[in-house]
Design brief:
This is Error-prone repair protein ImuA. About 25% of the residues lie in helices and about 25% in strands. It is of the alpha/beta class. The chain has one domain: Rossmann fold (3-Layer(aba) Sandwich). A nine-stranded mixed β-sheet has the order 3-2-4-5-1-6-7-8-9, sandwiched between helices. Helix 3 runs parallel beside helix 4.
Length: about 250
């Protein structure tokens, strides 16, 4: 007879093997990534943000695209703070303002920007970048990718353990892909310092539409003092559309 504790350990081992085969590998030995996303991180298997995987972001308006870029920059900053790797930012119509990345803990000198107009060349550059183990993160701004294309990208990161953030702006078709996660990020009015003008700290309505073997959902996430902060859902109803202080 197998003891209850041994059965639990056996089941956990089998679950981890299945996740690994599906591209959801855990962090490298001795390496823990704390993204500070609070309850959102509990949506992932093992309560851990999937690194060494492809994350797909969808946006349809310029406002949503700007919010998505900010949220991705926060994730990229956390990944870059974990090591000496650089970020490769590949796009056809780059709109990000490099000095603004400092707000998200990214030194612009550690970001290599590559602008490519042809989709075929852009996809090739993203795939080759994802194969390079010295990269901390690769950001690819592509209109869309099909299942076969996304599968090639996912296979690349499963070998290199590089994290890929793919941003699809106004895709013509939203189809099934091999990405581990699919996100939709929308802007929300941020908190302001008392008595000071301005738009306040960035805040986003973050929807995890798909997560392999996880729990999709929606959260309010703010960025302040150089890190992510979780915001309570009822904060949206605050007077003048202002969010209260984050936890």
């Amino acid at each position: 007879m197998i003891a209850a504790a041994d059965k639990i350990e056996l089941i956990r081992g089998l679950q981890q093997q299945i996740l690994s085969l599906q591209g959801m590998k855990g962090p490298l030995e001795g390496v823990q990534f704390n993204f500070g996303l609070g309850p959102l991180e509990r949506a992932f298997p093992g309560n851990t943000f999937p690194t060494g995987a492809i994350h797909e972001f969808l946006s349809n308006t310029p406002e949503d695209a700007a919010a998505t870029t900010g949220f991705m920059a926060g994730l990229a900053g956390r990944l870059m703070q974990q090591g000496d790797g650089v970020c490769l930012w590949i796009s056809a119509n780059r709109a990000v303002f490099p000095p603004a990345l400092k707000m998200f803990g990214i030194d612009p000198e550690r970001v290599i920007f590559i602008d490519i107009t042809r989709k075929k060349d852009l996809l090739w550059a993203v795939e080759e970048a994802l194969k390079c183990e010295s990269m901390a993160v690769v950001v690819g701004e592509l209109k869309e990718t099909g299942f076969t294309e996304s599968r090639r990208l996912q296979l690349a990161v499963e070998q290199s353990r590089v994290t890929g953030l793919m941003h699809h702006f106004s895709p013509r078709n939203i189809t099934a892909t091999a990405s581990v996660c699919r996100w939709v990020v929308k802007p929300v009015a941020g908190e302001q310092e008392a008595g000071l003008p301005g738009v306040g700290s960035p805040c986003w309505n973050v929807t995890l539409q798909k997560v392999r073997n996880g729990k999709p959902g929606t959260w309010l996430i703010a960025w302040s003092a150089g890190r992510f902060r979780n915001v309570k859902r009822d904060a949206v109803a605050a007077p003048d559309h202002q969010l209260p202080k984050t936890a």
